[in-house]
Amino acid sequence: MATEARPFHLVVLGASGFTGQFVVQEVAREQAIPGLSPRLPWAVAGRSREKLQRVVERAALKLGRPTLPSEVGIIICDVTNPASLDEMAKQAAVVLNCVGPYRFYGEPVVKACIENGTSCIDICGEPQFLELMYWKYHEKAAEKGSYIIGSSGFDSIPADLGVIYTRNKMNGTLTAVESFLTLHSGPEGLCIHDGTWKSAVYGFADQSNLKKLRNESNLKPVPVVGSKLKRRWPISYCRELNSYSIPFLGSDVSVVRRTQRYLFENLEQSPVQYSAYVTVGGITSVIKLMFAGLFFLFFVKFGIGRQLLIKFPWLFSFGYFSKQGPTQKQIDAASFTLTFFGQGYGQGFSPEKNKPNMRICTQVKGPEAGYVATSIAMVQAAMTLLNDISDLPKTSLFIPLNLRIAFTDSSGPLG
């Protein structure tokens, strides 16, 4: 990577956005770690110099680093202005793109980075954008030596690394994994910024194009090893967690399956089947969710319905999404647990015509998922890309290392 020839090793694009401000704080925190010398030159980028300056000043105040504003560069650019994106990309080794929804604003950034030999990391949870960018730009990115790394936030590093960790802890052959996300909150409850809500609205409205994209890819099916993992009902009960659950609709399944394909095709590793769910609590929560889901699925089909969903996220999500996003108290009190239930076969036991005889349970735990864990994951992905470039694959897959999350596991025979 051409870090020596560029003024900035890292540039946070969309730094003044809701998520971008947390990424700025995390980059500043990472650069303040004792023993990390020399500090990497970095900058923030966006449309308004005043807003960018305020974000850096707030980070300086929060971290107790009064000299921070003088240490961080400012780049003015706009995702609707290709020339400004080119100028931004030319100054960076790695761009941390926080501007979403990515289906509307992500491609110009990807294109500018590739054209200028710059690597790009995003925190996209939109499968259609991720898969489309791969098919459109993979060959060009490889030619230019650029790494375009999607879903490097809570979507989908914990899930992807969690499956690999579970496989490595299995004393045998892991063949299938189900993950269950549980979000924990404090007395003020949970809240998510409406940027995520917008991505969900447009994603559901455009599902047919995602199916078309996958059909046109003509990928050879990855073989199913052992018993086929059965898909659960839209609302199902998880006895192990004593909670109802629904399918997780982020990018986890898309990312994990692509990783498993890569490991099978390139490293000849046994592929793992994967499904993702999120727990919703007891029957009261299920009823509330059913009403919200019915409203959502009805309104998302029509243009005026989508406008209403986007204009009134708090109303249609029963208070879980808002234009203001979570308060600092809500963020500080929140955390997540991602539980993996895996099954497979013990050493010397053939998966052919036999039922699984081993199971394993692992967990990934971390702080508030949407902004704290996401920022940590994104910045650690960037640091890995800068520091461990010689160890990375030369194709499309990227597995970030040194993520600050806690793993626990227990495994044994079925019984």
TrEMBL record:
GO cellular component: lipid droplet; mitochondrion; plasma membrane
Protein name: Saccharopine dehydrogenase-like oxidoreductase
Phosphoprotein in keyword set: no
Membrane-spanning residues: 274-300
Pfam families: Sacchrp_dh_NADP
Keyword hit for Amino-acid biosynthesis: no
Domain Saccharopine dehydrogenase NADP binding: 11-149
A single BP term in Gene Ontology: glycolipid biosynthetic process
Keyword tags: Membrane, Transmembrane, Transmembrane helix
SUPFAM superfamilies xrefs: NAD(P)-binding Rossmann-fold domains
Family: Belongs to the saccharopine dehydrogenase family.
